[in-house]
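Blinded run. Sample ID left blank on purpose so nobody reads anything into the name before looking at the predicted structure. Input follows.
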Amino acid sequence: MEQEIKNKCENMCEGKCWKKNKGGTSNGLVYCLGVIGAAVYYIQNADTFWAGVLGVLKALAWPAFLVYKLISFLGL
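Blinded prediction complete.
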């Protein structure tokens, strides 16, 4: 039964669904370090408690700001 499912899948997606990813990426770690670094930066530069809270929220969304600025810079 399992072999039949595997054969059907290989026919549908040309074997791609059964291939294993042999290389790992560390994107999650890079993002996490970026969030921590941004949070430290924003909290250190905050004058009030609420500015620090806003800084933590900004730290979570820094990739969105980066992509927005990059697209604006490139004029896309």
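Unblinding after everyone has recorded impressions. Helices lie at 2-13, 27-44, 49-60, 62-74.
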